[in-house]
Write a structure and sequence with these properties.
There is one protein chain. The chain is mainly alpha-helical. The chain folds into 2 domains: 201 residues, no CATH class; 198 residues, no CATH class. It is 66% helix and 1% strand. The protein is built from 18 helices and 2 strands. It has a two-stranded antiparallel sheet with strand order 1-2. A hairpin with a 3-residue loop joins strand 1 and strand 2. The N and C termini lie far apart (54 Å). The C terminus is likely disordered.
């Protein structure tokens, strides 16, 4: 009965999102799909999870309703009727970055990707120097992971690893504009994977994938509204390229999981799940990662034994800055783990909002996110400002990571967004003076 109720509510939320925003890809449908899917997978109980306590159910439902209320507040605001109907009539779309046919955009993607490639090569050089060879690095993946957790492997210039996320953002726009996937689409991802293999983590791969998908689909919404030309994306090209991209990302994530020696023998797992033990792609640990966060949230609320500073998770980057000044000790990058009855430590963005701001945060912050992301949505599709578009994409990332963590605790969320906003005016000027930018074919 619980599974059916979760499925029905999630489905209705997805349909409501389509009705409100006239597009399937919007923040309400994504929230319902991600959080509804998370709770649904947990309640499947393919692992012997603990029961969700009533307070956790209240927080899950309340945060969703607050998020929805934030959306409805913007939509129902006075004098917004014209904005809400932004997709009803097509108009000619002319953006400065396409003045030169996308040449400056292509060059920018290459530049930021090459910086990311340099970072990956530099980190591999450090690891090979430490362990002797690439195979030795892979064999010692668990040690490398701990060294990174303890910040014992330093980047050449700390800000450089964030450059590749600028390339990911721009390549989403470029791919939508060119109406086809190309090698350039994959190049930033190759750089991300090479870099992430030196951390033996998977968070940045997920960050990059969601950033690309959101920038690509949301920009397609704009291009679909262009009356000057019929927007047509090659379905075969999209299918083949998307399949290749998914295979590369899943394979690299699986390689990281296998190299780190992830534990797969979970006591009490269902027969179907146990048969997947040792699988390269789908395994019990993957199911754990995709479903366990609700249990961690429930256990965190039940024990109520954590003490964090105000906004410690949400604004971790600022506490990091204060720590570098010697004002205070830096908070840990990783939250406390709980036994549910498997050890895991991520408990959805709700857990971190509760820890940072108390019960009020669970109600107010989702409302604020829903409000702002909806405001960015309509403002971008009416004014076509790329700075607003960057904010829209990065707030979509908060929704995309909601099942896992409050993504603003990641340094790259702030720094890469800052770099994008800083670079966009430069990119527009380069495109306007496109005669000075040489054509670069890939």
């Amino acid at each position: 009965m619980t599974l059916l109720l979760i499925a029905v509510i999630s489905f209705l939320g997805i349909i409501l999102g389509k009705l409100l925003f006239q597009k399937w890809i919007n923040h309400l449908t994504i929230y319902c799909f991600i959080m509804g899917g998370l709770v649904f997978l947990y309640e499947l109980r393919l692992l012997p999870y603990i029961k969700i306590i009533p307070l956790a159910w209240i927080y899950l439902i309340s945060s969703f309703l607050s998020f929805l209320l934030g959306i409805l507040t913007v939509i129902s605001a006075k004098n917004l009727n014209i904005i809400v109907k932004a997709f009803d009539k097509k108009s000619d779309i002319s953006l400065p970055i396409f003045t030169d046919g996308g040449k400056a955009l292509k060059l920018s993607i290459l530049f930021f990707s090459l910086v990311g490639l340099f970072v990956a090569i530099q980190r591999w050089w450090v690891l090979i120097h430490m362990f002797g060879s690439i195979p030795a690095v892979l064999v010692n993946a668990a040690i490398v992971y701990r060294l990174n957790v303890n910040r014992e492997i330093k980047d050449f210039i700390p800000i450089l690893p964030n450059f590749v996320y600028v390339a990911i953002f721009l390549v989403g726009i470029y791919t939508a504009y060119k109406r086809r996937f190309s090698f350039l689409t994959f190049f930033p991802f190759i750089c991300i994977i090479l870099k992430e293999l030196t951390y033996f983590g998977r968070g940045e791969i997920l960050f990059a994938l969601l950033e690309f998908l959101f920038s690509f689909f949301l920009f397609r919404h704009l291009l679909n509204d262009d009356a000057s030309q019929r927007f047509k994306f090659s379905k075969m090209n999209a299918f083949v390229a998307s399949s290749i991209l998914v295979i590369i990302l899943v394979a690299s994530s699986s390689l990281i999981r296998v190299s780190r020696g992830s534990y797969e023998n979970f006591v009490g797992a269902s027969n179907g799940l146990s048969q997947l033990k040792g699988s390269f792609i789908i395994s019990p640990s993957i199911y754990l990662y995709l479903s366990s966060d609700v249990g961690v949230l429930s256990k965190y609320l039940e024990l109520n034994n954590e003490h964090t500073m105000f906004g410690e998770n949400t604004f971790l980057i600022f506490y990091d800055f204060l720590a570098k000044l010697g004002i205070m000790k830096r908070p840990s990058d990783f939250q406390k783990g709980y036994f549910i009855p498997m050890w895991t430590n991520t408990g959805t963005y709700i857990r971190e909002l509760s820890a940072d701001f108390g019960t009020a945060g669970v109600f107010f912050v989702p409302y604020l996110i829903g409000f702002l992301i909806t405001w960015f949505w309509f403002k971008f599709y009416n004014e076509k400002s790329l700075v607003v578009f960057a904010l829209l994409v990065y707030f979509f990332l908060i929704v995309g990571f909601s099942f896992l963590v409050m993504v603003t605790r990641l340094t790259q969320w702030y720094i890469s967004l800052f770099l994008i906003i800083l670079y966009l005016p430069i990119l527009e000027k380069m495109a306007i003076n496109g005669e000075n930018v040489k054509s670069l074919k890939i």
